[in-house]
Amino acid sequence: MLRQRDHDGAMRMIKIVLQKRIYSKKYYAFRSLARSLDPTEAAETVRNDAIDNETDDSAVVG
Fold first, then answer.
1. Beta carbons within 10 angstroms of residue 39's beta carbon
2. Is the whole-model pTM more than 0.70?
3. Percent of the chain, pLDDT > 70?
4. How far is residue 62's CA from residue 16's CA, in Å, rounded to a whole number?
5. Nearest-angstrom CA–CA distance, 33 and 13
6. Which among 2, 32, 43, 60 has the fewest CB atoms less than 10 Å away?
7. 49, 55, 57, 62: CA torsion to nearest 10
8. In angstroms, rounded to a whole number, what is the distance separating the alpha carbons of residues 12 and 14?
9. CA 5/CA 25 separation, integer angstroms
């Protein structure tokens, strides 16, 4: 029983780490996209994508 609980905790931690890594890759992709667009359009794009990421991440982490 204890071993199973430790395994579940470890898997949960691995999942969180992988999600953070994916999030940081998305962040850098959006940042490079923002540099290539004009400033007002880029700010809207990054803000909208950040909102989308928050909703997606909250659904996955739970």
1. 9
2. no
3. 52
4. 11
5. 30
6. 2
7. 180
8. 5
9. 31
Centroid of chain to Cα 60 = 10
By CB neighbour count within 10 A (0-12 exposed, 13-18 middle, 19+ buried), where does 25 fall? exposed
Lookup result for tokens 């794009």: 45
Number of H helices, E strands in the chain: 2, 0
Name which residue leads in pLDDT, 56 or 52: 52
Residue with tokens 């700010």, as numbered in its chain: 43
* Residues comprising the chain, all counted: 62
Structure tokens at 17: 């780490």
Measure the CA–CA gap between 60 and 12, rounded to whole angstroms. 11
Q: Please report the pLDDT score of residue 14 as a whole number.
A: 78
